[in-house]
Amino acid sequence: MLTGALAALYYRYNKVSIISLTLICYRLNTMNSYKSITNHISDFLDYCVEQNLKQKTQENYKRFTGKFLLWLQNNNLTALLPHQLTINHINGYKDYLSTTPLKIISQKYYLIALRALLSYFRAKDIVSLPPPRKSPFLRPIKG
Hints:
mainly alpha
């Protein structure tokens, strides 16, 4: 847990890129989860209950992460581990969302749920991409 906190502080104060921070965390080998992202989803939803998120938020996160799971399945990525998740995967998911009949604002909600999943990984000290606050890689693609 301490190593993840140190990496977060390093990121905050030195403004290193997301990719650099991911490499730092990967090299530190802290809590590399050998459980796939698919298997972490139920833990994430339980975590949402523990955090006392509103019932509607929990329902939405379940639906939104379900869409992400569907995308993982369609791309044969069900065995993808959290530390293997890359910006290219995020961009692929964004492309997928842009091909659905979802409005831009709805796509943002799906990406916010993905950011919440990344925050869960950080809270549990599972190496993954850091959850950006306002980052272009979590903005939907305008059609």
